[in-house]
Amino acid sequence: MSRFQVVSGKGGTGxxxxxxxxxxxxxxxxxxxxxxxxxxxxxxxxxxxxEALPYEERRIAVSPGxxxxxxxxxxxxxxxxxxxxxxxxLGSAGRALKKLGAIDFAxxxxxxxxxxxxxxxxxxxxxxxxxxGRFVYDxxxxxxxxxxxxxxxxxxxDEVAGLARIGPIHNQAQAVMRVLKSPETAVxxxxxxxxxxxxxxxxxxxxxxxxxxxxxxIVVNMVRPHLLDEDALRTASGxxxxxxxxxxxxxxxxxxxxxVRPLVEQASEHAQRVELERAQRAVLAGLxxxxxxxxxxxxxVSLSALxxxxxxxxxxGVGDEAADAxxxxxxGARRPGPGGGPGRGVGS
Length: 348
Prior knowledge:
This is ArsA-related P-loop ATPase. It holds the Pfam family ArsA_ATPase. This protein is 52% helix and 14% strand. The protein folds into two domains: 4-224 and 296-332, P-loop containing nucleotide triphosphate hydrolases (Rossmann fold, 3-Layer(aba) Sandwich), CATH 3.40.50; 225-289. It has 14 helices and eight strands. The chain has an eight-stranded mixed β-sheet, sandwiched between helices. The chain is an alpha/beta fold. It has helices at 15-26, 43-48, 76-88, 91-100, 102-108, 113-127, 147-163, 167-180, 195-210, 230-238, 241-250, 256-285, 303-315, 318-325, and strands spanning 4-9, 32-37, 58-62, 68-73, 139-143, 185-191, 215-223, 291-295.
């Protein structure tokens, strides 16, 4: 499995929840995952029940087997100051520019600069190694912008590399694109089994492929259980009220006549929902990508529910794929775990 996991999706599909569950699923058996937020909504902190994330990497959860999930809310202004220091040694000058408002101008007005900084910081975390030459993080998971602008967001460095033909800006942009267009990266799209999210997912996949960006999985989120078997669905969709009334009477249900109409209406709505979901599954199957499904959790997603969703990912092979692709140091040696016991909980 790719080391850089980018999670996008139409608004309302639960992409932040999916990104968090994926990070937990990948952080198993001593592996370390960095969960990155780029939209400034502090959605990760809310999910894990922690305080607002600062511009620093900190542990927020522990997975079974001692794996760790770290999180980072990337701030574009701070990322620009890092960039100025890294390439131009302008630490103090950068802080002076911030006081003058130049940093805010660059990150909010200059076209594309914000996205360059956000993707650049995430890719730096993907490439970062320790003194022994081992990757600091086995996986980096990004809670990315929605499907409608994910391709432009990821591809902005291509445009920058074309504008700045030489120098550190050009080199940095090229380095970022080498990560984003390599097998190290996979862009996953989250959808619901509804017509608009599925269509936006199909359009997003087409745009990503046209830009030569690597598409990973389709994650079908908030999947509802089917409550009726096939015979019951056919009966419900046909509105066969007399048969239902007779069945209730035979079962000894008194006042069955008054129950038939609301029961039939609810069953009919469920049958229509099932048919809609089947049609959308057929559309998704035609896109030719692997899929994963996560169940509907209900109101509010607790930390325990996140772990349950992560377990669903593992049942569908996501964690197993990670075990074959991550956590290996030079020469294929397994990197030792970062410590910490098994179990669930928010880290300090």
